[in-house]
Design goal:
Two copies of one chain form a homodimer. With 301 residues, chain A is an alpha/beta fold. Helices cover 35% and strands 26% of the residues of chain A. The first copy, chain A, is globular and about 55 Å long.
Chain lengths: 301, 301
């Protein structure tokens, strides 16, 4: 089965209580594809500018499961940059600077050989662009998207058009409340579940996630992480592992989806333990499987 | 086995988006004992003033599992009153008015026939009073206490003295962070677990709870409640069901404790569904057992 991701590639500067990285590898499609790569092949689509250092994406180019044929190096453009600073409580952060650069230009073109992808993740971007990217695909079977408060506030009509066309939506609890006007996150999730064809995952950061599917609600705690260095990319890593697992199993029934969310949870928990993708570079699928077993043990009652 | 609770009896006025109750039954020992009563006998200790209406505690007096021999009606004193107002998001509230009244006076005397209690819950009050109450017991085997930010800030030494003498502590996530100065709740819980002899439960409200016991961390989501009317007393109901279950099983091993926390979670989830103890008056232990089975189902992966 084939999994495709479209999203950002970022040159990130991150400050946190335990340190700082400058011009580090980041971006939604980067975190997503590396996390998905623990489970099987993934097709990468994203754009950088000509300023992007030649070896910046080497960990992805070198990865046996990541097909970089969808990487565009756009002449005359500059790469997306983000600078964030986490508080003493790393669940809160400020954006110090953001330069959209190439992300504010035309979207990527999905390579011909990727167009038959069955499993598709449209990472957060303008919903009109997500619809356009979806239009380039010939036979998608499970399309899942992420979104953010900016589009909910400023591009609601466009976003609603996207929701009609996708199977699953992944978003934060604050975004779910914003989208529905519901202060109760469970109510919010149930309402959004009616806007898409299959499921909604509401991410609650350190508090875990909720799945709305088959008319039911399923709840997952987070991995109890005692040492959080840098939460950047945790949501995209979660989504990457979730979609990677579904693709590997080639199933989207609710039982598989629940297992996929648990995989997403523990995979994201590794990502928190160091800056950028550094922790991912040290682990294998066996580490994820071991932690998944531990996660099962410490959530049973 | 015998379970004893010491705590407050409150005349509560509660405003919430879905309505309001005036002079309603409340207080920590009230919620606790009613929740514990679903699982077995509970010995009630608390004080009201002479202003307390004669039938105010009728639901407890009429309850076959609640022994009210520890109720003191103090002449010349007034009953504790609390008035709270919940926000549109009912996870936040303001205290409109609080009159400690009898709670600011001498503590209760534990009746002679209650002094051999094996399982003991000391609900939130001044830690010196909690120690004094504990001193009235002759053979406690599992002593669990609750506390709050006020005592952490103003009576830390006294609180530390209490912690040395108890087996378990139940507190909120913000209180756990305050007590330890740790912004990470898992780190905070692990540190507090070293201050007591057996376990710590960190309550996270709508996000569930964490158990620190046997050197490990266990994590529990909340019941995904779509219709929250009034969260008042949820924490005390949680503790009551947890302690009631442990007492009924007469076991405090970690596996039993984990099951007890799940019982606390679902019992508290009923309490949220109406003002005061009104929802509890409509349910039986069978309803709790059914919801516990559903909770198991929707948390498995």
């Amino acid at each position: 089965m084939s999994l495709l991701v479209t999203g950002s590639i970022g040159i990130d500067t991150v400050e946190a209580p335990s340190g700082k990285v400058v011009d580090a590898l980041g971006g939604s499609s980067v975190y997503f594809s590396y996390a998905a790569g623990f489970f099987g092949p993934v097709r990468f689509v994203g754009v950088v500018g000509e300023d992007c250092p030649a070896d910046f994406l080497k960990p992805l180019h070198d990865h046996p499961n990541i097909d970089m044929a969808g990487l565009e190096i756009r002449e005359g453009s500059k790469t997306f940059r983000w600078h964030g600073k986490y508080h003493e409580d790393v669940n809160e952060r400020d954006t110090v600077a953001v330069d959209l650069n190439v992300l504010a230009e035309a979207g990527p073109v999905i390579p011909e050989k990727f167009r038959d992808s069955k499993y598709v993740f449209l990472a957060n971007t303008h919903p009109a662009l997500q619809v356009e990217l979806l239009g380039q695909l010939t036979a998608p079977e499970l399309v899942v998207a992420d979104t953010m408060d900016l589009w909910i506030n400023a591009e609601r009509e466009s976003l609603m058009g996207l929701l009609e066309r996708i199977d699953g939506l992944v978003l934060n609890d604050s975004e779910a409340k914003l989208l529905t006007g519901q202060p109760n996150v469970v109510q919010a999730g149930m309402e959004i579940a009616k806007m898409v064809s299959r499921f909604v995952v509401v991410k609650k950061g350190e508090h875990g996630s909720l799945l709305f599917a088959d008319g039911g609600v399923f709840t997952f705690p987070a991995w109890p992480a005692a040492g959080v260095v840098d939460p950047t990319g945790a949501g995209d890593s979660f989504a990457g592992a979730m979609m990677g697992f579904l693709t590997a199993r080639d199933s989207i029934d609710t039982a598989t989806l629940r297992r996929a969310i648990a995989c997403g949870t523990v995979t994201a928990s590794f990502n928190l333990e160091d800056f950028s993708l550094n922790r991912f570079f040290q682990i294998s699928q066996a580490d994820i499987e071991n932690r998944l077993k531990q996660f099962e043990e410490l959530t049973r009652f």
